[in-house]
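Researcher: Please translate sequence to structure tokens.
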Amino acid sequence: MINKIIHFTQTQREKILYLLIGGWNTLLGYGVYYLLYRTFKGKVHYVVLLIPANIIAITNAYLSYKILLFRTKVGFKKSLLEYLRFYMVYGVSMLINLILLPFFVEIIGLPILAAQAVVMFITIIISYTGHKYFSFKHNRNEIHQS
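Model: Translation complete:
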């Protein structure tokens, strides 16, 4: 049984790490959004608060995925390209968030924080695919540490 668990974790390392890092980043992003919402409730529209919350969460996610998951080692220019591609994937996620959050709040009637949790779950799935096949797509034989 232990051998099966070890084998599973070795063969599914990338997905397991993605879920763990993604889980951490989701909690961080949700926590930042929560703090911003509670701090600026009634002063700043709830949708506008997505911008600073996402900037913080995206930067944290990029560093975590780069260092812990995809382990790419490239020069400054390629790292900058990675970061921009990473932001593009999250830009798509942000647009989806900007559409779905008001939909779930205004049309479906979910409370704001519950709606944001639902939307984050949807965007996790979308962003994994984008990061794996776009953000960190390089010749892994040259830059991926085994």
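Researcher: Any highlights?
Model: Helices lie at 2-11, 13-40, 50-69, 76-108, 112-135, 140-143.
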